[in-house]
Amino acid sequence: MIKKLSYIFGSKTHAQEILFLLHDAKEVVRQGFYAEELPKIEKFCRDFNLIIVKSKFKVLLADAEAYSNKGIRVPEDDIREGMYFVYISKSEQKACLASYYELISNDRDLGILLGFPCCCVDFFCQKFTVNKQNLELPSTNPFTNLSKRAQDLVILSHFPCRSDCQDSINLAKRYLDVLMKVDSRRVEELLKALKDSAN
Question: Residues with Cβ < 8 Å from 101, sequence gap 6 or more?
Answer without folding.
Answer: 107, 109, 110, 113
